[in-house]
Structure formats: C-alpha cells, structure tokens
C-alpha cells in the first residue's frame, strides 16, 4: 500500500479523496431522495475506495507534479 511521505501529500490526498467521496454520495442522495448521512455503509465504501486507490499508487505515494500546489 502507498506510503505517504510528506504533510503536503497527506493534505492533498485528504482533499482529493474527500471531494471524490462526497461528490459520489451527493449524486446518490439526489437520485434516491435520501439525505446525506455518514452511516456504516458510507464508511465501509470510503475505506474500500481509499485502500484500492492507495494500492494503485505503489509502495510510496508521489503527489502529481502538476497538482502539487493546489
């Protein structure tokens, strides 16, 4: 699993993953008519998504150069 080596990379990942997960859940809530609630299902899906994302990044996570200062 990808190892995060800097605070900047950690902050970048938190922002990116949060934005992605919230956007995905908001789309689901709009379609289903349910309010956005962080229940066990959302926590589990988020955990799985983060694990899969970090596995794709290799042993050490390297922040993309073009997005390093967002």
Automatic annotation (TrEMBL):
Residue stretches making up the Set2 Rpb1 interacting domain: 2-61
Xref: InterPro entries: SETD2_animal (IPR042294), SRI (IPR013257), SRI_sf (IPR038190)
Keywords recorded for this protein, A-Z: Nucleus
GO molecular function, one term: histone H3K36 methyltransferase activity
GO biological process, one term: regulation of DNA-templated transcription
Compartment(s) of residence: Nucleus
One Pfam family it belongs to: SRI
GO annotation, cellular component aspect: chromosome
Protein name: GL27001
Native organism: Drosophila persimilis
Gene, per the UniProt record: Dper\GL27001
